[in-house]
């Protein structure tokens, strides 16, 4: 076996091991052999839904849950849960943008025996309010009858949608890939059978219904739009996009064996990590004096880029450094106020945050709920985009470069760009030349590899320096410590001020919720009083809901910006409902 063949086999084996965990990833502790969804739309626009979902549960669990996403103005009511052959205790949990139906399951009427290795059918009955859109020219039902938040594949799904009359109705199944049959079983009921719906994939059913079948009601979402033509155009584009995607998928599958060596080769030549002596699993204090901003820029995501956690951590620092004072905080809202502290020593990225938050002052008070309700989502996302660029100017690029070698990533981007240009030129040439099918495949392969080459994260093609690898691993070890309650319990932070510092870095590392939960649990175990908590503004802020309210407010704005098309005419995938569920 020659040297070239050995290298090829090594690359293929490395790629196989990289992809194997994905192929055999656990779908969770349950499977879904079947589900039946009944949706009845009355002539006043009310959606009455019954879901029969069978889950084959492995091991012992407390129960199951069902998450139902809600758009603005929507709600569910008259919830009923039935579990044939089992006893249940349901909880209805309002999560703001969704409702969770949590179902505790038992084998006995005294509710003492948990289920174990059981096949359970849970029947959810509820009314879904404000799910039907009344346009000027047509009534639209766009409903995700199966959501993309399930961790298991659904082997078989049957849906029944009942409307006042089928005549003149247009219907689409988005996507159609899993549909075995979709037929009207009578004048009012559409039956759709689906199979092998993968985990984290939705099934949306969209119907355009004549307005004459409905009477005026507050149950409708009134859009004031002439929507029929736009919806048909949207569906035509979706079908064309799906057809193109399926075609490309077939091509990619044909040449997958060749593509496997590309990421392996990149990793072998450019991305292999240096060997270092540092092996600690935990760091019990912040391992370096670097700012939370720098830690986020280097440790989280692509090296040299920020995520929103850097912004949140900076707000916490401003609170801790007395540029804001906390007026009131509870589980519903948090109110802060700008202090008179001199800001001349602050950096521009810090001043920008102060100026942004003060736009939403009312009588000097800044409410995170008010920001959530009255800030335009696009205003927030535009600010965050500009803020990241400003913050980047405060980071020492020289120091980042000393930690991370981007040479491999830069080379790959150049090579990928050249491959795209060459493949396009060759493709145009092949149209006029008598090119073989094999040559066409090579051209397409070159184009796809080029696209992949410029798309992969910089941490794959680039690599850490020994100093950078040590820095990265130490901060990850610190993250392990602050997110492991057993370590917090045995080796707690030395003081309330240290707790505050750790919360800032936890936020920068994207672990704010888990670390704040650990803090709550620890404080309850040692019975700290309020006077102790008040010694750190960040701890006080977090303990009484401020951190949660702040992140929920900004996450809501980001979510609204991402789904700004959900009102009026929605594109495919913008249907209401869906969600998912699981066990707990």
Mean pLDDT: 85
Number of strands: 25
- Contiguous runs where pLDDT drops below 50 for at least 5 residues: 1-28
Task: State the secondary-structure class.
Answer: alpha+beta
CATH topology assignment of the largest domain: Immunoglobulin-like
The number of domains is 3
Estimate the global geometry from the Cα principal axes.
globular
Helix percentage range: 40-55%
Query: What Rg do the Cα atoms give?
Result: 28 Å
With helices defined by DSSP (H or I, 4 residues minimum), what is the helix count? 20
Level-2 CATH architecture of the largest domain: Sandwich
Just give the CATH class of the largest domain: Mainly Beta
Strand order of the largest sheet: 5-9-2-1-12-15-14
CATH level-4 homologous superfamily of the largest domain:
tricorn interacting facor f3 domain
Structural topology:
Blueprint: H1 3-23, E1 30-41, E2 47-57, E3 60-61, E4 63-69, E5 75-82, E6 87-94, E7 98-106, E8 115-116, E9 119-129, E10 132-134, E11 139-146, E12 154-162, E13 170-174, E14 179-184, E15 189-197, E16 203-209, E17 221-222, H2 228-254, H3 256-259, H4 261-271, H5 292-299, H6 308-320, E18 324-329, E19 334-338, H7 348-358, E20 361-362, E21 365-367, H8 368-374, H9 377-392, H10 397-403, E22 404-405, H11 407-432, H12 437-455, H13 458-461, E23 463-464, H14 466-482, H15 485-490, H16 496-508, H17 512-526, H18 530-533, H19 537-543, H20 546-562, E24 576-577, E25 580-583
Parallel strand pairs: 1-12, 10-17, 11-24
Antiparallel strand pairs: 1-2, 2-9, 3-8, 4-7, 4-25, 5-9, 6-7, 10-11, 11-16, 12-15, 13-16, 14-15, 18-19, 19-21, 20-21, 22-23
């Amino acid at each position: 076996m020659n040297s070239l063949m050995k290298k090829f086999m090594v690359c293929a084996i490395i790629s196989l091991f990289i992809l194997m965990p994905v192929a055999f990833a656990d779908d969770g502790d349950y499977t879904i052999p079947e589900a039946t969804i009944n949706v009845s739309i009355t002539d006043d626009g009310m959606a009455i839904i019954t879901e029969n979902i069978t889950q084959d549960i492995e091991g012992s669990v407390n129960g199951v849950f069902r998450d139902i996403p809600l758009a603005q103005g929507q709600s569910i009511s008259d919830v009923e849960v039935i579990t044939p052959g089992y006893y249940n205790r349901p909880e209805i949990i309002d999560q703001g943008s969704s409702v969770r139906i949590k179902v505790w399951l038992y084998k006995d009427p005294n509710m003492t025996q948990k289920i174990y290795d059981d096949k359970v059918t849970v029947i959810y009955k509820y009314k879904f309010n404000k799910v039907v859109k009344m346009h000027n020219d047509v009534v639209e039902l766009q409903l995700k009858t199966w959501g993309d938040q399930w961790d298991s594949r659904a082997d078989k799904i049957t849906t029944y949608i009942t409307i006042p009359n089928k005549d003149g109705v247009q219907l689409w199944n988005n996507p159609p890939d899993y549909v075995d049959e979709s037929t009207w079983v009578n004048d009012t009921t559409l039956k759709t059978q689906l199979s092998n719906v993968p985990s984290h994939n939705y099934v949306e059913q969209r119907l355009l219904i004549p307005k004459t079948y409905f009477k005026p009601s507050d149950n409708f979402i009134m859009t004031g739009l002439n929507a029929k033509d736009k919806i048909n155009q949207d569906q035509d584009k979706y079908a064309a996009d799906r057809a193109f995607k399926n075609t490309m998928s077939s091509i990619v599958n044909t040449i997958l064996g060749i593509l496997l060596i590309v990421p392996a080769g990149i990793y072998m030549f450019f991305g292999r990590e240096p060997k270092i002596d540092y092996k600690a699993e935990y760091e019990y204090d912040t391992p370096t004096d670097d700012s939370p901003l720098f830690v986020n820029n280097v440790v989280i995501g692509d090296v040299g880029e920020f995520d929103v956690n850097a912004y949140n951590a900076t707000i916490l620092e401003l609170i801790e450094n007395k540029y804001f004072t906390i007026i009131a905080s509870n589980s519903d809202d948090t109110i802060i106020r700008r202090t008179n502290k001199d800001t001349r020593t602050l950096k521009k990225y810090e001043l920008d945050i102060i100026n942004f938050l003060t736009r939403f002052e009312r009588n000097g008070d800044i409410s995170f709920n008010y920001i959530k309700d009255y800030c335009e989502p696009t205003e927030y996302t535009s600010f965050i985009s500009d803020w990241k660029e400003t913050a980047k100017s405060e980071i020492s690029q020289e120091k980042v470069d000393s930690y991370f070698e981007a040479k491999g990533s830069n080379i790959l981007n150049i090579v990928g760009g050249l491959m795209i240009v060459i493949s396009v030129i060759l493709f145009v040439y092949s149209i006029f030349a008598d090119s073989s099918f094999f040559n066409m495949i090579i051209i397409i392969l070159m184009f796809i590899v080029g696209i992949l080459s410029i798309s992969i994260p910089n941490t794959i093609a680039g690599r850490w320096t020994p100093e950078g690898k040590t820095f990265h691993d130490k901060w990850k070890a610190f993250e392990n410590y602050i997110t492991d309650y057993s370590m917090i319990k045995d080796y707690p932070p030395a003081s309330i001020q240290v707790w505050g510092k750790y919360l800032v870095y936890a936020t920068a590392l994207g672990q704010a919720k888990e670390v704040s939960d650990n803090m709550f649990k620890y404080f309850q175990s040692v019975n700290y009083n309020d006077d102790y908590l008040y010694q750190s503004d960040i701890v006080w802020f977090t303990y009484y809901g401020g951190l949660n309210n702040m992140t929920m407010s900004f996450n809501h704005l980001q979510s609204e910006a991402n789904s700004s098309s959900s009102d009026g005419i929605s594109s495919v995938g913008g249907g209401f409902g869906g969600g998912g569920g699981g066990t707990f």
